[in-house]
Amino acid sequence: MSDRIVDEEPVTVTHTGPKGVINDWRKFKLESMDQEALPPSKRELIRQMSSPHKPRDSCVGGFNRKMSAQEYELIKEDDEKSLRKYRKQCMQEMHERLSFGPKFEGVYHLHSGEDFLEVIEKEHRLTVVVVHIYKDGVQRCEALNSCMDCLATEYPSIKFCRISAAATGAGERFPDDVLPALLVYKAGELLGNFLAVTQHFSEEFFATDVEAFLNEYGLLPEKECGPGADEDEADVE
C-alpha cells in the first residue's frame, strides 16, 4: 500500500489572459445590470460591450474611439460594487472547481452489512471513506467514536462512518481483541486496515492523536480554510 495518495482532477479554464478576463467581466456586467431600467441607448451600448467580437459593419475608427469613451463613462458609474461582486463569483467558481467530490456532515451510522457495502462501492470515487467498527460497552470504542465526531467536522470531504461488529454480518471476524477497528476505502479499494487501532495511542487519547495517525499513512487531505476572505477582497486591486 502506498504511503501517499494523490488523486487530482484537471481544472478546466475557459478564459485566460487579459482579453479573456475583460470579456468575462463585460458579460457579467451585462447579466447583472437591470436592463429594463436603462434607456434604450444605454441598453444597446451594454449589449455591444458584452460581445468580445467587433461588429462586422463597425469598421470606422472614429466610431470605435467614441465607443471607448462611452464605455468608460458607463462602467465607472457602479464599477466598484459590480467588480467586487464579480470577484466574489470568480472565487466561488474556483473553489467549486478545486473542491473535488461531495461534502458530508457528521458521522454516518451504518445499520447492516448491506449499508457497509453500499457506502464502499457507491461513494464518489474521490471520496475517502473511514469506517469505525465498534462494540457497545467497550471503552476504547466509545473514545474513538468521540474522536470520529470531532474529525468529521474538521474534514467534511471525508465520509466518516461507524457500524457495530454484530451488524456487519461478519461479527466472528471482529472479536473484542481487534476492536476498535478502522477501515479506510477510496473508490472501492481498501487503503488501510487498522485492527485494534487504539494500541497505537496512549491510554487516554484524543482526536488529534487519531488525526496524526491517519496522516502518517497519507489518508487525510489538507484542512479546508473557512470563510473570511470576502471582507478582505475589496482591498485587492
Keywords:
about 240 residues; alpha/beta; five-stranded mixed sheet; 7 helices; about 40% helix; disordered N terminus; disordered C terminus; Thioredoxin-like_sf; Phosducin_N_dom_sf; sensory transduction
Structure description:
- It holds the Pfam family Phosducin.
- Belongs to the phosducin family.
- One of its GO terms (biological process) is visual perception.
- This is Phosducin b.
- With 237 residues, this protein is of the alpha/beta class.
- It has 7 helices and 5 strands; from the N terminus they run ααααβαβαβββα.
- β2, α6 and β3 form a beta-alpha-beta unit.
- The N terminus and C terminus are likely disordered.
Give a brief description.
This protein is an alpha/beta fold and 237 residues long.
Please describe the topology of this protein.
Blueprint: H1 17-32, H2 40-50, H3 61-75, H4 79-98, E1 108-109, H5 113-122, E2 128-134, H6 139-154, E3 159-164, E4 181-186, E5 189-194, H7 207-216
Parallel strand pairs: 1-3, 2-3
Antiparallel strand pairs: 2-4, 4-5
**Strand line-up in the sheet with most strands:** 1-3-2-4-5
- Level of helix content? 40-55%
Question: pLDDT below 50 for ≥5 consecutive residues: which ranges?
Answer: 1-16, 55-65, 226-237
The beta-strand count equals: 5
In one word, what is the shape? elongated
Indicate the radius of gyration in whole angstroms: 27 Å
Structural class, from secondary structure content?
alpha/beta
- The N- and C-terminal alpha carbons lie at a distance of 47 Å
Describe the main β-sheet briefly: 5 strands, mixed
Mean pLDDT across all residues, rounded? Answer: 74
Number of helices: 7
What is the H-and-E element order?
HHHHEHEHEEEH
Beta-strand content estimate: 5-15%
